[in-house]
Design brief:
single chain; mainly alpha; 77% helix; disordered N terminus
C-alpha cells in the first residue's frame, strides 16, 4: 500500500512549516480566492508565536500524544492561516478521534482552500465518525463523481479506514450502488465489488456482480469477480465453472493470466493455477510462480517436468535462469544439484542471492562447517554489496537459531552489529529472536536502539508498541508508540491491528472491535483473525469468535497468536 509521508525531526519540521507559512503570508498575490480573502493575513508577530505551537505539535507527535498534537497544530494553523497546517491538524485530529478539533481544523482548511477531493474525503470521514450518515453519503456521492481526480478510489479509501463498523460501510456502498453513483468504469465496479466481499456481505456482492454482468457483458474480469463472489459464498464448484469461462481469454493476456491463477490459488486448486500460468508466453516470473505453486501443491511430478524444461537451457550462462533452477532443485530436495546451479551463477545481482542460497543448501546437507565458512567469507568480502554482507550475518543467525544454538546465534548478531553499527535490520531481527524466547526486556532494548538511530521507523514503532501491549501491562506507553506509527501509515492493516489490540488490553472493547474488524477487512491475516476472535469471545459473541478462529486456522494453523488466543479463551 502506499507509504505515508514519514515524520521528520521536530525542530526541522516545525521550522520548515513555519517558513512556508511565513512565506505564504508575505507573498500571496492579491488575486487570491474569495474564501481566502475573507481570512485576515497573519501578522509577523502571529507567525512568530506559532513557532511554539508547531514545536509542541511535533514533540507531541513524537511522544505519541495525538490529541495534544492535533490541538497544537490547530493553534498554529489559526495563527498562520496556512492550509498545509490546517490539513495536518485535521488528519491528526481524525486519528486522535478528537471530533471537535477535527471539525474546527476542517472548517479552517475549507476556508483556506485545498484539493477538493482531499477535503471531501476528510468531510466524509468526519461525518462517518460522528454517525452523520446522511452527510457522509452526500460527501461520498460528490467524491465518486470527481472524474478528474479518480474520486471513487478515495471514496473506497474512506470506507476502508473511516467507517465505524462494517454495517456502516455496507450501508454506504449500498447507497452508492442503488443510487447509480458508481462511475461507468469496470475497474470502479470491480473495486466496490471487492470491498463488499471483504466486508463479508455476500448479498451486496452478488447485487454488484449482477449489475456488472449487465453493464459489461462478455468482459472476462467480470467472470473473475463472479467466481470470487461464489467462492466467498462457499459455492466452490460454481466458482470453478465461472473460471473455466475465463480460460480462453487468458492465454495472450499476461495480467489476466496472473489474476486467474490467483483465483485458482485462493480456491486451493494450486495445480490448476500452475496450469493457467503455463499457457502462453513464458518469462522468469511465470516460471518462478509455476514452480512455487507446484511446490506448495507437492506436485513433484509436474515440478520435475518443469525443472527438466528449464534445465534444457541451463547451459547458457544466464544468472536469472540458473538461480531459478537452483531454487526449483531445492523444492525437489535435489540439494546437490541445487548447489551446482547456485555455484554456477556467473555474476550480476543474482550472484549474491545465489551465494546465500548455496549456504542454506549446505546447511540442509549437514555440511555445516562449509556453510558457516561460506558465510564468513561473504561477510568479509569487500567486493560484495553491503546488503549482501549484512544478509550473511542475518542468515548465519537464522541457521544457528534453527539449530537451537542460542549463543552462536547471538554471536552472529553481535559480529554483524560490530560491522554494521546499529543496523536496523540486524537489531530488528535480534529483537524478534529475543521476543520468541520470551526475553521481552532485551527485545525492547533492541527496538529502542532502532528508534534512537531512526525515531521514525514505523516497523520498530509498531513492533515495540505491539510487544508492550501483548507481553506487558504498559498499555499507555504501547498506545503512544502505536499512535506514532498510525500517524505515518494510517491505513496499514498491521498497525490498525496493533491499535485494536492495545485498545482491547486497555479495556476499550467496543473500540477495539471496530479497529480489528477494519484491519481484517483490509487484510485477511491469521493474527488479525485471532485477535478479532478473542475480543468477540470476551464480549460474549462466541459463535462469531469461533468463525474467526476457524479462519485463522485455515490461514495458518501454527500461528502463535492463534495458539495464545485459544489457550486464553478455551475455545
Amino acid at each position: 500500500m502506499p507509504r505515508a509521508t514519514r515524520l521528520t525531526k521536530p525542530a526541522v519540521l516545525a521550522a520548515g512549516l513555519l517558513l512556508a507559512a511565513s512565506a505564504a503570508a508575505v507573498s500571496k498575490p492579491p488575486a487570491a480566492s474569495a474564501a481566502t480573502q475573507r481570512l485576515p493575513k497573519p501578522s509577523a508577530e502571529a507567525v512568530s508565536q506559532a513557532l511554539e505551537s508547531l514545536m509542541v505539535g511535533e514533540f507531541s507527535l513524537q511522544a505519541g500524544r495525538l490529541d495534544e498534537a492535533a490541538k497544537a497544530y490547530l493553534r498554529a494553523a489559526h495563527a498562520t492561516r496556512d492550509a498545509a497546517l490546517a490539513e495536518r491538524a485535521t488528519r491528526i485530529a481524525l486519528l486522535a478521534k478528537d471530533d471537535a478539533s477535527a471539525a474546527d481544523a476542517l472548517a479552517l482548511w475549507h476556508g483556506l482552500g485545498g484539493d477538493p477531493a482531499a477535503l471531501r474525503s476528510a468531510d466524509a470521514m468526519l461525518a462517518l465518525r460522528k454517525g452523520q450518515d446522511a452527510q457522509a453519503r452526500e460527501h461520498l456521492v460528490a467524491l465518486v463523481g470527481m472524474k478528474a481526480n479518480d474520486g471513487w478510489r478515495q471514496a473506497l479509501g474512506v470506507l476502508g479506514v473511516g467507517a465505524r463498523s462494517p454495517e456502516q460501510a455496507t450501508a454506504m456502498v449500498r447507497a452508492l450502488v442503488e443510487g447509480g453513483h458508481i462511475p461507468a468504469r469496470l475497474d470502479a465496479w470491480l473495486a466496490f465489488g471487492g470491498l463488499a466481499q471483504r466486508l463479508e456481505q455476500p448479498e451486496l456482492a452478488e447485487r454488484i456482480v449482477t449489475e456488472v454482468v449487465r453493464r459489461f457483458p462478455g468482459e472476462p474480469r467480470v467472470a473473475l469477480l463472479q467466481a470470487s463472489q461464489l467462492r466467498e459464498a462457499g459455492k466452490r464448484e460454481e466458482a470453478l465453472a465461472a473460471l473455466q469461462a475465463v480460460m480462453p481469454h487468458a492465454e495472450n493476456n499476461p495480467a489476466l493470466r496472473l489474476a486467474l491463477a490467483g483465483e485458482y490459488d485462493r480456491l486451493g486448486d494450486l495445480s490448476a493455477a500452475a496450469d493457467v500460468l503455463a499457457r502462453g508466453p513464458q518469462d522468469e516470473q511465470t516460471y518462478s510462480l509455476r514452480a512455487s505453486l507446484l511446490a506448495r501443491a507437492q506436485d513433484k511430478t509436474t515440478l520435475t517436468k518443469l525443472y527438466e524444461e528449464l534445465g534444457r537451457e541451463g547451459s547458457r550462462p544466464d544468472p536469472q535462469r540458473r538461480l531459478l533452477l537452483g531454487q526449483v532443485a531445492e523444492f525437489l530436495d535435489r540439494n546437490e544439484e541445487a548447489l551446482g546451479w547456485y555455484q554456477g551463477v556467473p555474476g550480476g545481482p543474482q550472484r549474491w542471492t545465489a551465494r546465500l542460497r548455496a549456504t542454506n543448501v549446505l546447511h540442509e546437507l549437514d555440511r555445516d562447517a562449509e556453510a558457516f565458512k561460506s558465510l564468513r567469507e561473504l561477510q568479509a568480502d569487500v567486493s560484495a554489496p553491503e546488503d549482501a554482507r549484512r544478509d550473511a550475518y542475518l542468515l548465519e543467525a537464522a541457521l544457528r537459531g534453527e539449530d537451537n544454538e542460542l549463543a552462536a546465534e547471538m554471536d552472529a548478531f553481535a559480529r554483524g552489529l560490530a560491522a554494521f553499527a546499529d543496523d536496523p535490520e540486524l537489531l530488528y531481527a535480534r529483537a524478534l529472536s529475543w521476543e520468541r524466547r520470551d526475553d521481552i526486556p532485551r527485545a525492547e532494548a533492541d527496538l529502542r536502539r532502532v528508534l534512537v538511530a531512526d525515531p521514525d521507523s514505523v516497523a520498530a514503532l509498531n513492533a515495540l508498541g505491539y510487544t508492550l501491549a501483548d507481553r506487558t501491562t504498559r498499555y499507555q506507553e504501547a498506545l503512544e508508540l502505536i499512535d506514532r506509527a498510525r500517524t505515518a501509515e494510517p491505513d496499514n492493516p498491521a498497525i490498525i491491528d496493533s491499535y485494536g489490540w492495545v485498545l482491547y488490553r486497555l479495556g476499550r472493547l467496543e473500540e477495539a472491535l471496530v479497529e480489528l474488524r477494519r484491519a481484517f477487512t483490509l487484510q485477511k491475516d491469521p493474527e488479525i483473525a485471532s485477535h478479532l476472535g478473542e475480543v468477540l469471545w470476551v464480549i460474549g459473541k462466541r459463535e462469531e469468535a469461533r468463525r474467526y478462529f476457524g479462519q485463522a486456522r485455515e490461514l495458518d494453523p501454527d500461528n502463535r497468536a492463534l495458539k495464545r488466543a485459544l489457550e486464553r479463551t478455551g475455545a
